[in-house]
Every structure is written in structure tokens, then in C-alpha cells.
Amino acid sequence: MQASEITHVAVLGAGAMGAGIAQTFSQAGFHVTMRDIEQRFVDAGFKRIRDPLQRRVDKGKMTKEEVEAILARIHGTVGLAEAVKNAQLVVEAVPEKMDLKKEVLVDVDRLCPPEVVFASNTSSLSITEMANVTRRADRFVGMHFFNPAPVMKLVEVIRGSETSDATVQLAREVCVRLGKDAVEVRESPGFVVNRILVPMMNEAFNLLQEGVASAADIDKAMKLGTNMPMGPFELADFTGLDIGLDTMETLFRETGDPKFRPSPLLRKYVRAGRLGRKAGRGVYDYARETP
Fold it and tell me: Which residues are identified as catalytic?
């Protein structure tokens, strides 16, 4: 199958990443089925898509008709069989838990014809391990989008142990159709971006715990000193402290390298429910709007 032949895509998961990926494909003209396990999650996914688009309409950057066309190409469902029916590409975007991902992939594999290509949006987990529970390891690839997916240009295309050259090429061509830039990565814990980014964010939490500087000053230092658009704490709050902790734990477990050992302060924040913007409080308190 050629990338140009793909017209229908199934996105499994309607969270921040799943909804963003569904929007990205729809904006590029694909027909998308967005699936989650409960209707309330599907509805929340559509809200994640609709609200930012409406703000663009309010600012005169899009028309109402353009937004309606994007939404019309996305169908929401809680049925797994309905989600993958007619799909030529399945993008898995469920929570970053290996057991959960494998459970979903086993079920989807039974429902899909052998020619359907599977892609996982994982940010750090093994593509090879996920592919091994399916009957299509050669047609299984990582496609790691970045949040927010409709805006961020990068997609890491990750080659598992058995991923074929044709599948990698198809994924790269799909990225071109989406208006994204792809980098090809051979499977390694954390791939490229998180392998570099996670230790930096973790060290920021260590600095804060040691009282070296305030959170605001650490963020300011990194933004003004390295030209980062967001400081490490702003970024951690945006992406979710729980997600960052999961990624660090995966990297530490897979590599044994102490530089990936999660900061005790990060663990404490997550245990306290301080998960970032989505919870109203992370490193910063968003209820008071005083980052």
C-alpha cells in the first residue's frame, strides 16, 4: 500500500494527543474515526478540537465553514470494530502504559485485515514489544507526534526490530501529507527528543528541590539563556507531570542510567495530584493564574 492510497484513519484515544492527531489528519483531508472507551471521553475529544478552532474563527484566522468541514471528517465512537472499519492506517494513542497498549493492539489486530498498517504514538515505549503482540510486526511503526499535534511540526518515525523499509517510507510519506517534518529513529528508549529533554526537565526539579532558584527564575533562565519558547516547568505543566514521570520511569527502567532517575520532588507533586494545567495546579497554581 502506498501512502497516497490512505483515505481513512482510525485514531485510538481521544485525549489531548488522540484528539490532536485526529484533528491533524482531518485538516489534511483524511476521514478519521476517533475512538475512546466511553462517550464522555469522545465528547471531550471533540471539545479539545472544537474550542481552539473556534478561537481561530473569532480571531478571523479561519472561517466557520472550514471548522465545520474539519469536524465533519471526524467520526466519534466507542466501538472498536466500528473505529477500525475501512481504516487503512490505525494510530494508537491510548495512555502510556505498555500493558494497556498491548491489550488494545491485540484486539485491533484481530479486527483488521493484514494489509492495515499500525502506528503507535508512544513517546518512550518499545515499538518492538508492541509489534510483537500483533501479526504484522513488519507493518508496525512508531509515529510520535508532539503536543499540540496540529501545531508542532515534528513527528518521530520509529523503526522497531521488524519494521519494514516500506512501512517506514509509508509513515514518512504520510507525514508529508500532514505537512509535518519527520525524523527517522531506530528504536531506543526515549527515542531522540525525550532522551535529551527528560534529563533536562528532571534536573530542573532537582534544582528547585535544592533551593538553588525559584521555579519562575529557572524557567526564565532557560528561556532567556537558551532561547527555549517555554521553560522546563512551564513545559512540564503543559504536557502533564504524570506523563513526564511515566517517561522518566520508563527511561530509568530501560537504561539503568541514574540521570533518568525521577526527582523526588516530581514524584511528590504527582502523588499530591499536582499534574499541571489539566489539574489546575502543577509547579504553578493555574487557579490563581500566577505562573
Answer: 123, 144, 156, 194
In the chain, at which residue ranges do the beta strands (DSSP E only) sit? 8-12, 31-35, 74-77, 89-92, 117-120, 140-145, 154-159, 181-186
Return the C-alpha cell found at 184: 527517522
Residues 117 and 39 in one domain: yes
| 288: in domain | no
136 and 161 part of one domain: yes
For residue 29, give the CATH number of its domain.
3.40.50.720
How do residues 74-103 score in pLDDT, each as one tens digit?
Answer: 999 999 999 999 999 999 999 999 999 999
CA dist 269 and 129 (Å) reads: 30
DSSP secondary structure code for residue 285 in this structure: B
In angstroms and rounded to an integer, the radius of gyration of the C-alpha atoms of the chain is: 19
Q: Write out pLDDT tens, residues 232-277.
A: 999 999 999 999 999 999 999 999 999 999 999 999 999 999 999 9
97-108 in b/e form (b: 16+ CB < 10 A) is eeeebbebbeeb
The secondary structure of the chain in percent helix, strand, coil, rounded to multiples of 5, reads 50, 15, 35
Query: How many CB atoms lie under 10 A from the CB of residue 20?
Result: 25
Q: How many CB atoms lie within 10 A of CB 272?
A: 12
Q: ω into residue 52 within 30 of 0, thus cis? A: no
SS3 282: coil
Domain span at residue 273?
A: 194-279
| pTM for the structure as a whole | 0.91
